[in-house]
Amino acid sequence: MSKKLPVRTLSELTLAEMAGTIVGSIGTMVQTSLAFGIPPDYTLLMVEINSYMDNMGATSNIYEDLLRVILCSDSLDASMRFCCLQMLLNEGVQCLVTDIFPLAYYERILQVIAAQGRGLRQLNMKGVWVKEECMCFMFEIVKRLPHLTRLTIPHIANDNLLKHIADYSRCMRQLDISGETDITEIGIEYLCYGECRNHLTVVDIGSLGEENICHTDVALLLQNLPNLATLKSYSFVGRSLQYIVEKKDANFKCRLVYVHDMETDATTLDAIVRTCPRLEDIYLDSPEAGILEKLCSVKLRRLKLYKFSAYELLGLAEHNGKSLYHVTVIKGYGPLEIDRLVRSCPNLIDLDFYMMDSLTFAGDSSFTNLQGLEILSSPIQKPSLRRFICHTTTLRRLAVDAVTFSDEDISSMVIEHDLYQLEDVWFTSAPYLSIASVEILMDRCPELQSVGQLSGWALTPDDVTLLRGILKSCNSSLVLNTYQPRRKARHPVSWIVMRRD
């Protein structure tokens, strides 16, 4: 039987109780004020609650945890969440995620963070899209938060904001200014010569698949940020490196460990291999035919390919597959023999196939460490799929969009091959699997945490209700999913499909 629901820890219970008490106090005060026809006095309540927490010895971690729980709550009104932000943010809080707020709250949120968040080290404002009229408050935040090491502000950056970051953020290590922004070469230059240039290791810039930041501007970052290891989101890193080698410095070397490049040709890939001696993670989108062999000398840990030759992948794997731990392949042309991957990449932990022409598996060898397997929109015959799963007993996560397994198939697979480590099973369409398959998975897979997507199985709503009743009565932690899309998507490809096809 799958695991039981764990008993909530005392700290979790206390945190939930305290958060509920704070929210309840605010709600009671608001209702009382409205009943008497007077405006709520939030200031007095804030003083009282903070005084109580100080007297009880509340630490900065408690304030931080309360903010995390309250701000991410979907059930709380924006006014309630904002009031808690005002009440709980103080100089002891080091990490803050604002989450999503309506436009009307943006200015007030920025003012509160600037006034009360001096101790913040990490600030994530993904849910607050600052408009031009509020940008002055963003400038104040950067000025007043000198200890920031990680700042996440997608879609809102401009040259003036980058100037303030360059002038005041001496400790910045990770900066997310991705998305559609108003950044030009001027803003990039500010960042290149600012206070944090020697500390920045991760810069998330640009939009996936779009060159909204010129590759020559990104080249400035590569040349002037000596410890830059990752340029997230940017899809033309190879062009930037090629530009540096051809126009600026033929002997240039950088510290990049991850590179994403689109429509890579032989010259560009040569530049990538030549300038990135620490490279261990690469994503090539639509590489030119015949160039993957240039990666044979690189000890890659992660490889992601889109629109490529399956034959070239196998050739590359035979040369340096032993160093690979994670492989994601999308829209590979030609048949792919998984047997050859098994022989060439014995250490793989994750293997994901999306929109492949065809997959086959006919051997007896197996991955000894494979934990995650996804096969989506990639035809594979039932005998091949069954054989592959049965030979990979280390699997924790298994996702296949369409299977023709019967209840007898599932029963023999899990009983005869001891798939004891399975945690997540996801078959989008499994028309021949009934309640019996769910029951055998529940019984024989002790680590199982979720099964889905049951609306595509041969189960009635009554079957699902019965199973959930059994799980509840047994205090099981197993979750039965009956909806789309997948609850967990580790390698989303929708942006590629929408953009290119």
Automatic annotation (TrEMBL):
Q: What is this protein called?
A: F-box domain-containing protein
Q: Which organism is it from?
A: Anopheles coluzzii
